# Entry
Amino acid sequence: MRELIEKGKKRLQWAREHMKVLKKVREEIKESRSLEGKNISMALHVEAKTGILALSLAEAGAKVKMASCNPLSTDDSVAEALREEYGMDVYAKRGETEEEYYENLNRILEHEPDVVIDDGGDLVSLIHTERKDLIEGIKGGCEETTTGIVRLRAMEKDGALKFPVMSVNDAFMKHLFDNRYGTGQSTIDGLMTATNLQLSGKKFLVGGYGWCGRGIAMRAKGMGADVMVSEVDPIKAVEAKMDGFDVGPAKENIKRADFVVTATGCKHVIGDEEIKNAKDGCIMANSGHFNNEIDISALEDNSEFSRTAREDVMEYSMKDGRKLYLLADGRLVNLAVGQGHPAEIMDMSFALQMLAADHVINNDLEDGVHNIPRELDEKVARLRLEADGIKIDKLSQEQKEYMEGWEEGT
Ligand code: ADE
# Structure
């Protein structure tokens, strides 16, 4: 146990040293005392960078309770270190059952939160279905990811969302970097850790060309893979083509794919037809929030038997003799196998989370989904430039007037 705690402590310390933007935001919010005494319930992937967010909120005076937003993504060493070394209320363990997962979400609500911080929308959904009694006391929430925002907007459309939620995901300093470069890098990390196989020269299919898919495709190409993309959105499909990828339907592309990674936010992207067409030996993984992008029942129905081929690699022997592989039960491979996004990237996302929590506490916002104000987005960008020692240009007064006017054209 001591060894596990020490490992978690070191991971936390390492992350803290690389999260300089969050440090500045933490210092400012601590000084303003705006979060002092506030109860915060956080459902995020429990790992080192998230641990630093929880500790930052606590250092600013908030009372934080933390659970995971996914049953398979918890870093147990970090969870244990947070509990034992920092006295944090953390209710999460890797590989928890669905029942334990919801028990833990309920436990973080026991202190009747002022603010909820969610990743994927399960916590907000739980409150609106089974813990409606808490809604009155909740000043607002913050949502981390695209999947959560899609769910919240559906709730908003139905008039079902009963408190304001800040869309951290839609901030430029979040999705341009976390979704793209973060998912790109951490997905490759997860794939390589799980398989220890070669990527260069392999055919690699990316399902979805949103910010995450773009990042995965870019990084797979950088590793020398021959990348194909499948999309349902015609605009994104054109973009993928112009970015140099081979675009086509998943059921066709998968016939040639050595690796498949889904990142769409939609279910059954790899369904029965794609599984029937998949190339012998194909390795499939998901980087989207939920484990329904690859239809596991279709995989089971088409197979004769399965076995664990290697840690986090399930081998399915198909009735027609092919072998297909699924990583981490189709859970998001970058966290279930890899260590999640790089610290410097989560630094910006979590600085935004802290600013969003502060914003929602200090303003009386209407129920519904709210964008992060532009000035907070720019603040995070400037802090990041400062941390990297990068200076940028500034418009002169003459240029400012030119940009704001319309009479002068030449
Ligand atoms: N680390 C913490 N939260 C994460 C997320 N949503 N994606 C990847 N890595 C993370």
Q: What stands out?
A: Residues 330 and 376 are 35 Å apart (CA to CA).
